[in-house]
Amino acid sequence: MASDSKSSRDRDASTPSGMLQTVDRALQILLATDREHDGWSVTEVSREFDFSTSVAHRLLSTLTHRDFLILDPATHRYRIGPAAMTVGRIWAGSQSLRLLVQPVLAQLAEATGLAAIFAIPDAFHMRAIAAETGTEGPLRKYPLVGELFPAHAGATSKAYYANLPSLERRRIFSDRPMARFTPSTIVDPALLELQFERIRRQGYATSIGEYDHGVSTVAMVVRLRNEPFGSLSLGAHGGFVTDVPALVRVLEAAHRDLELRLGGRCR
């Protein structure tokens, strides 16, 4: 009976026919590793995924061998490793990410007439990795892709940084000089934190002329597996204060579409 039970547990019906079950199981473990669950014991993997302990141990050992996990010798827990970070960084700057994002930006630009931007963090900035120009014209005289937006200036950046865990945000902004780009740029850390709190509460960020004179922006954080990953924003020369509620509704729909595209089956 024990042998039959083990055999039953070692078969995983969630893996589609024709796919390698061992690979699928290893990926399940990686995809379940996040900020709230950053490490696994053999017993936890066995219980969480209904694998036998021998299968759980072999999977964890294999992922550790290729540096996707590392074993903490003090706790005997397996935590995310450098190979996973390397793959993530490659993907974040790859053409495949832009291919997922670009259709959403094109729809946003067409629906609103505004410039649509998707940006991801790059040190103390947000870097635009994809953009679409609306009928109202470009925000720059040069392509926006590759443009760096300072963390403390403009909705494109603030929508992301406002949603980081408070300790991480304090580490980023603590004792860091902040340039004043226009009279509207906030450089007081206490005032900036109050603005971040308001952004989290209302679910979006707005700015008028904080980084570029005369440019208005509305933006939302984009999450990947419940973690802040980037920001989706709309921008235009001049003000659109009276249009913000309507723009937020359009942005919300696009933002949900984008999170589904990025998360895929991981969600």
Q: How many individual β-strands?
A: 9
Rg on CA atoms, Å: 22 Å
If strands are numbered along the chain, what order do they take across the biggest sheet? Answer: 6-5-4-9-8-7
- Class derived from helix and strand content: alpha+beta
Written as H for each helix and E for each strand, in order along the chain, the element string is: HHEHHEEHHEEEHHHEEEH
Q: Give the N-to-C terminal Cα separation.
A: 36 Å
Shape: elongated
Helix content: 40-55%
Query: Treating each run of at least 4 consecutive H or I residues as one helix, how many helices?
Result: 10
Quote the average pLDDT. 83
Major beta sheet summary? 6 strands, antiparallel
Strand percentage lies at: 15-25%
Oligomer classification? single chain
Low-confidence stretches: 1-11
Task: Describe what you observe in this structure.
The chain is an alpha+beta fold. It is built from ten helices and nine strands. A six-stranded antiparallel beta sheet has the order 6-5-4-9-8-7. It has a three-stranded antiparallel beta sheet with strand order 1-3-2. β7 and β8 form a beta hairpin. α3 (42-49) crosses α4 and α6 runs antiparallel to α10 (244-263). The chain is elongated.
